[in-house]
Design brief:
By secondary structure, the chain is α/β, with parallel strands linked by helices. Helices cover about 40% and strands about 20% of the residues. A 5-stranded mixed beta sheet has the order 1-2-3-4-5, sandwiched between helices.
């Protein structure tokens, strides 16, 4: 698992692994990441479904309840099939933009 920390945001990715192994590794590493905003780069997965994305829902909700952002990055899913409570975007830059907007909202108490 590779971590790329930029300020208060950590981008997480891993090459050549299954989604279940990725999730297992993410859960193990989570205690080190829980104080950062998290971007999960899923570009190494050639096929993803809405159900695959839902695997991240629990960790996403938990992270967001601690006033931190959690954003998945992939262009392999149909966005209309993903629940609104989980943030999924097609590019790393859009993930950074969402985090920036959410930080502003948190600062304003929205």
């Amino acid at each position: 698992m590779i971590f790329d920390k930029e300020g208060t945001t950590t981008i997480v990715f891993q090459e050549k692994t299954s989604l279940s192994t990725f999730m297992e590794n993410l859960k193990k590493a989570y205690p080190k990441l829980k104080h950062d905003n998290i971007v999960v780069n899923l570009f190494s997965f050639s096929k993803l479904t809405a159900n695959d994305i839902l695997e991240f829902l629990e960790i996403s909700n938990s992270h967001k309840s601690n006033k931190k952002s959690f954003v998945l990055v992939t262009d392999k899913v149909v966005y209309d099939e993903i629940p609104e409570e989980i943030s999924v975007v097609p590019t790393i830059q859009e993930a950074k933009d969402i985090i920036e907007m959410e930080e502003i909202e948190r600062d304003l108490g929205i």
